[in-house]
Design a protein that fits this description.
alpha/beta; Aspartate Aminotransferase, domain 1; Aspartate Aminotransferase, domain 2; 2 domains; three-stranded antiparallel beta sheet; 12 strands; 14% strand
């Protein structure tokens, strides 16, 4: 059977063995409903609060400021719409960027249809916003700034601490989509002046179907889902106890081995860059070379169709991506690559490789050798 080499950790990760072990008993033995008053339910109530504490600890928050959700997209929706609806009498202006995840962009589009005004900041060729443009965009009606911590396609890490200072200076709430950043960057919501932060467990070796939203104490936001009074009356629905156990364990583990893990990713990424640059002509590395996520490598291959490239790689057992997994199947070029100024040829020939804990130098060599062969073949056929 062909060996599978997985290089798409920005899309999702496998569940860590220790995380799975923790979760299993909450499917069968400790299956009680968190909201029940009998002992089986009370036990799970404590379990959930323990996970809430673990999540809060790694971002320097209070456990009461953590709300569990179903995913990162739900966390983004709850943050943006929740703040907008709760503050519509104070203002109707929100600032974001052109390279956000679609959970943010589509939430803003929905709010625009309801009368809110949205400013979409430009980014430069590396994917960074201009802080002066951000500050100049703030008006008396601005209620929220939502800018992602690190981009899911090109890995660019925004100057979050500086953004937080600007937001605080103008008394505007600051939300960051940190779905890609958790596990790859040390985050301190106090030091960085972050008011709301979104995350998703399956990006850092936790289960799918569970995320979390941090909201600073004292900030009012409206629920967007009708139902019961779970999650302090902010997120209706029976608590996903196994998933919540999983996100707590996963975030604890990823930060326990933070330095070693991220050094490995940086070494693999930089080795991959050097090998591709030395063996394949007419390429372009997208995003900043240094100030990017440690495991992210996005390269455009001139004269190559990205979708074709992925199919040839798949035939060799290699899993990678042409961009965000959430936009797979779209015929349009990546909105992120368009925003950083790539033409259709370079945007259409982009390959995103994201490294993870199981990858090795030998895996990278196999990937590069495969790319050399496939790119040459595709260019000859084009």
């Amino acid at each position: 059977m062909q060996k599978i080499r997985y290089f798409d950790h920005a899309a999702t990760t496998s569940v860590a063995e220790d995380v799975l072990k923790e979760m299993i008993k909450y499917f069968k033995l400790n299956f009680g409903n968190y909201s029940s008053i009998y002992s089986l339910g009370r036990h799970n109530r404590k379990t959930i609060e323990d996970s809430r504490t673990k999540v809060a600890k790694v971002i320097n928050a209070n456990s009461k400021e953590i709300y569990f959700t179903g995913c990162g997209s739900e966390s983004d929706n709850l943050a943006i719409k929740g703040i907008a609806y709760a503050n519509k009498n104070k203002g109707n202006h929100i600032i974001t960027t052109k390279i956000e995840h679609h959970a943010v962009l589509n939430s803003c589009e929905t709010l625009e249809k309801q009368g809110f005004k949205i400013t979409y900041l430009n980014v430069n060729e590396k994917g960074f916003i201009n802080l002066e443009e951000l500050e100049n965009s703030i008006t008396n009606n601005t209620i929220l700034i939502s800018i992602m911590f690190a981009n899911n396609e090109i890995g660019t890490i925004q100057p979050i601490k500086d953004i937080g200072k600007i937001a605080k200076k103008h008394n505007v709430y600051f939300h960051t989509d940190a779905v890609q950043a958790i596990g790859n960057i040390k985050i301190d919501v106090q030091e960085m002046n972050i008011d709301l932060l979104s995350m998703s467990a399956h990006k850092f070796y936790g289960p799918k179907g569970v995320g979390a939203l941090y909201v600073r104490s004292g900030i009012e936001f409206e629920r967007i889902q009708d139902g019961g009074h779970q999650e302090k009356n902010k997120r209706a629905g029976t608590e996903n106890v196994p998933g919540i156990v999983g996100i707590g364990k996963a975030i604890e583990l990823i930060y326990k081995n933070f330095e070693e893990y991220n050094e490995k990713l940086r070494n693999l990424r930089d080795y991959y860059f050097s090998q591709v640059e030395s063996k394949i002509k007419d390429i372009k590395i997208n995003g900043d070379r240094q100030n990017r996520l440690p495991g992210n490598a996005n390269i455009s291959f001139k004269g190559v169709d990205g979708e074709e490239l992925l199919l040839y790689l798949d035939a060799k057992g290699i899993c990678a991506s042409a961009g965000s997994a959430c936009t797979t199947g779209s015929s349009s070029p990546s909105h992120v690559l368009v925003a950083i100024g790539l033409d259709n040829e370079l945007a259409g020939g982009a390959l995103r490789v994201t490294f993870g804990i199981e990858n090795t130098k030998e895996d990278v060599d196999f990937l590069v050798d495969s790319l050399v062969e496939i790119v040459e073949k595709l260019r000859k056929n084009s």
